[in-house]
């Protein structure tokens, strides 16, 4: 698994302007229920992974098959971009405007899109998410 994590970080670094980090984030599988509790207040949602800035850990749904599924790996690459943003001082959720948070999210999605396209995986869900994000700050005063 560590070799896979190393190779996915190479993708994230290669597709961004960030330097290779000295230390990789922790990547940990958690139950789908834990994802729902953490990200969606126990409500239905489609989240499968997230990056925690406090622990510098990427959590992903344990049902994802990282060893075989390029699409699942794409989610990890996306979260690695957030890790890189964080260690470079660019990801401070409580101090960022809606527009700044959306910009960071769009960067992670662009990297994920490229990764998926390079591995001949569909990107329609990512394309839709990017399109929706473009209007989040215009349509809401809430945080994304």
Summed up:
This protein is mainly alpha-helical and 144 residues long. The protein has helices spanning 2-14, 32-40, 70-87, 98-118, 124-133, 136-139; strands at 26-30, 49-52, 57-61.
Largest sheet: 3 strands, mixed
Q: How many β-strands, per DSSP?
A: 3
Number of helices: 6
Rg (CA only): 15 Å
Shape: globular
- Order of helical and strand elements: HEHEEHHHH
How much helix, percentage-wise, in residues? 40-55%
The separation of the N and C termini measures: 32 Å
Structural classification: mainly alpha
Give me the side-by-side strand order of the main sheet. 1-3-2
The unreliable regions are: none
pLDDT averaged over residues? 92
Sheet-strand content, in percent, reads 5-15%
Could you walk me through the main structural features you see in this protein, from its secondary elements to its overall organization?
- It contains 6 helices and 3 strands, in the order H-E-H-E-E-H-H-H-H.
- With 144 residues, the chain is mostly helical.
- It has a 3-stranded mixed beta sheet.
- A hairpin with a 4-residue loop joins strand 2 and strand 3.
What does the secondary structure layout of this molecule look like, with pairings?
Elements: H1 2-14, E1 26-30, H2 32-40, E2 49-52, E3 57-61, H3 70-87, H4 98-118, H5 124-133, H6 136-139
Parallel strand pairs: 1-3
Antiparallel strand pairs: 2-3
């Amino acid at each position: 698994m560590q070799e896979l994590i190393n190779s996915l970080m190479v993708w994230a670094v290669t597709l961004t302007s960030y330097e290779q980090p000295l230390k990789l984030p922790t990547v940990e599988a958690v139950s789908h229920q834990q994802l729902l509790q953490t990200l969606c207040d126990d409500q239905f949602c489609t989240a499968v992974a997230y990056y925690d800035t406090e622990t510098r850990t990427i959590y992903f749904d344990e049902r994802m098959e990282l060893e075989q599924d390029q699409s699942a790996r794409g989610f990890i690459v996306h979260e690695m971009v957030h890790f890189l943003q964080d260690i470079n001082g660019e990801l401070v959720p409580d101090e960022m405007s809606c527009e700044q948070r959306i910009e960071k999210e769009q960067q992670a999605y662009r990297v994920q899109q490229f990764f998926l396209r390079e591995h001949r995986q569909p990107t329609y869900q990512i394309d839709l998410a990017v399109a929706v994000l473009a209007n989040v700050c215009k349509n809401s005063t809430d945080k994304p």
